[in-house]
Amino acid sequence: MRQLIAACCLAASISAAPAGQDWPQFRGPTGQGHSGERDLPVSWNESTNVAWKVPVAGTGWSSPAVAGGRVWLTTAVTEISGGSKAISLRALAFDIESGKQVVDVEVFRLTRPRAIHAKNGFASPTPVIDGDRVYVHFGADGTAALTTAGAVVWRRTVSYQSQHGGGGSPIVYGDLLIINADGNPDEAFVTALDTRTGRERWKTWRRNPADQAYTTPLVIQAAGRDLIVSAGAYRAGAYEPLTGREVWRVSYGDGFSNVPRPVFGHGLVFIATGFQQPSIIAVRVDGAGDVTQTHIAWELRRGAPFTPSPLLVGDELYVVSDTGVLTCVDARSGSVHYQQRLDGNYSASPVFADGRLYFQSEEGVTTVVSPGKAFQRLGVNRLADGTLASMAVSNGSMFIRGESHLYRIRARPTAQTSDR
């Protein structure tokens, strides 16, 4: 698994992932939003190219993860009994072909739920599927391993205080489940749990000052070795996967509350610096120690996102701001090819599939764009559900988690649209 992830990350800098792959984690098999699926639709709506549409109980913005013929999500269901309120944190799975729900299991239960950010929820991190295990993460409220049949194997709480709830998703590296836990200044760290037992294998504290962040780590290859790039408040670090030892770090001033997942290619890792003065920085990955003054190749300030992750396709890097400004830059130099306003607001991370770029707005509109140095809009598609979750691409389909429904979008539907 370790070698496969690293190879996929390296391949993503050049082309899309091979066809026929599952979508087992946030942003797909490479973690960078690439899919090798073909014959995907350019146009759809509620009555066209929807293979099925099924309701999803509760609330949550975890993105779909797809493997083994199932689509996995997490959700938070509010239950009120005798005047008291509880939140049931649940794992759900749906059959790919029919949309039928086949797993619905409570993993954790909150009897004293706290207030949470309006654009977040209690079920935002995306599940990770690795073989016969599914790992679900609810931030500081708990992490668990399940069988693909839905049986809980282990539960663990990674203790830290997050102001706005959980956001970043975990990743699998060999027999380690690696999690960013960025809370208060004295509780910001990266940790690795044993995938078999849930026990902590290592923990590396962020350097002070630290603060809130909601990012997902990324495995890269640099100088012939694997590194885990993890963005946090004020700085990002590259760590040895097996030990958690920091190899290099890069600082970016007052940037905090980061959300986007980094992407990697051309010997550069592209990192979003977060709130206050958002930018994208391109960092050469062959350094050691503090590389802030020596290894930042370029920086993009105008149009940088707070929430959507970047997308690297060939020599071009695409970023969409939360307010809908799409920027295409040369990945090596940072020179801007174009900036184009898209309709709506954006939280979901874009996808590259079937030779096209897909950008989902919070209002439920997906804009399809041709890759290249000049802007070319190929389609604009609207669904009834708004979304903050990123789409998954697998089995010749897109899986979109809306506010209340899960959609399977396919050019040749296998079933009539239903509202089971």
Structural description of this entry:
The chain is mostly beta strands and 420 residues long. It has a single domain (2-410), classed as Methylamine Dehydrogenase, Chain H (7 Propeller), CATH 2.130.10. It is 3% helix and 43% strand. The chain has one helix and 34 strands. The strands form eight sheets. A five-stranded mixed beta sheet has the order 1-28-29-30-31, with no helix packed on it. The two termini are 36 Å apart. The model is unreliable at 1-19 and 413-418 (pLDDT under 50).
In a few lines, what is going on in this structure?
The chain is mostly beta strands and 420 residues long. The protein has 1 helix and 34 strands. The strands form 8 sheets. The protein has a 5-stranded mixed beta sheet, with no helix packed on it.
Structural class: mainly beta
Query: At the third CATH level, what is the topology name?
Result: Methylamine Dehydrogenase, Chain H
How helical, in percent, are the residues? under 10%
Q: Helix count, per DSSP?
A: 1
Instruction: Give the strand order of the largest sheet, numbering strands 1, 2, ... along the chain.
Output: 1-28-29-30-31
Within CATH, the superfamily carries the name YVTN repeat-like/Quinoprotein amine dehydrogenase
